[in-house]
Amino acid sequence: MNLFTYFKETKAELKQVTFPKTSQTITYTILVVVISIVVALVLGGVDLGFKTILAKLLAR
Questions:
Q1: What is the pTM of this model?
Q2: Euclidean distance between CA atoms 46 and 10, whole angstroms
Q3: Which of 8, 10, 40, 59 has the fewest Cβ atoms within 10 Å of its own Cβ atom?
């Protein structure tokens, strides 16, 4: 398989791809950002809880 054939087949495959609409892309991007923030807050809360528990155990 030479380079020309590779690019020709790649172009043919890309014609079959269905790309999402702009509104879908924006919606999914916002969803990913919101979920990332929620996960960060939950993990931060768990970390703070473990830190507090560990500090109380070591203070004894």
A1: 0.69
A2: 47
A3: 59
